[in-house]
Amino acid sequence: MTDSSDEEYLHTEWVPYSERPEWSDVTPLPQDDGPNPVVSIAYSPKFRETFDYMRAIIAKGEKSQRALELTTEALRQNPANYTVWQYRRDILRELKANLQDELDYLDEVIGQNAKNYQVWHHRRVIVEMMNCPKWELELTQNALDNDGNAKNYHAWQHRQWAIRTFNLYDDELDFVDRLICEDQRNNSAWNQRFFVLKHFGFTPEVIKREAEYAMDRIRVIKNNESPWNFLVGVLRQSESGKLDSLPEVVEFSEGLYNAGNRSPYLLAFLIDLYQEQALESKQEDNSIAQKVYALCEDMASKHDVIRRKYWQYVASHLKTQLSKQAEGND
């Protein structure tokens, strides 16, 4: 999908730089692939000429309005070219250009290249130059709301950078709650929730509230890895750092198991929970350890066969730890 400016560009006959009078003073600089290139890339004539002139401009160090326009043309053809983006920034600084115009330009470029690292990096530098994050949350929200981009790493990274750099945390929990309600498997939104909570601090009240938040969503989709990972992360922030720090979470997870649920994420949670308890009991052959061994066997043979050797290792490692503890107590 293209915007109006791209539509106009696509339907405008392109004039080679070699035929433009205003570029007659520039000698294009061809790409040097060496005498015997292993793989010769079949660049289009338009691409080759644009970048031949781009190399010439960089070589002579020209920072002018026409050079800026040339970078626009080059980036339209290859928006991932780091060298052109860097030179564009040098030109903007030299010309003391209107950076708001640059942000408007980037709105269009990001709309077409939302998963391009170089575009987002350039945006960050421009925002830093302006010291103004006014549009960044809206920009990233629009990028994430587009089809197929809800988990766009670059957009999330930019959003976290803007929030952290300019202290924009206040409304972020509401934003991620909306995303989680729309797609409870959106791991990026769960990660963002943890990022915000970590900033404000994990008090006992926050830990209890967020554990309930995760459990509520697990009740809806029990075989969903994201809230299970979030729940573990939240419990680890308690004073003890243990998974049984909230009795209601233990009751919840054991209740799911006793009701017949065999989600691998539930079983993995219980294995970690019982491992901690078994090691605390310091008894080599105790009933809690037996639960770990049985669950590991179920994971290895039925519910997570692809990681069979890992679960066998978990059971074996616990036996070794308990044996060493028992020897130390003799």
UniProtKB/TrEMBL annotation:
One annotated GO molecular function: CAAX-protein geranylgeranyltransferase activity
InterPro entries (alphabetical): Prenyl_trans_a
Record's keyword annotation contains Transferase: yes
SUPFAM superfamilies xrefs: Protein prenylyltransferase
EC numbers, comma separated: 2.5.1.58, 2.5.1.59
Top-level enzyme category: transferase
CC annotations in GO: CAAX-protein geranylgeranyltransferase complex; protein farnesyltransferase complex
Keywords from the named record: Magnesium, Prenyltransferase, Repeat, Transferase
Keyword Transferase appears in the UniProt entry: yes
Required cofactor(s): Mg(2+)
Pfam family, one: PPTA
Similarity remark: Belongs to the protein prenyltransferase subunit alpha family.
UniProt-recorded name of the protein: Protein farnesyltransferase/geranylgeranyltransferase type-1 subunit alpha
Species this protein is from: Drosophila mojavensis (Fruit fly)
Gene of this entry: Dmoj\GI16973
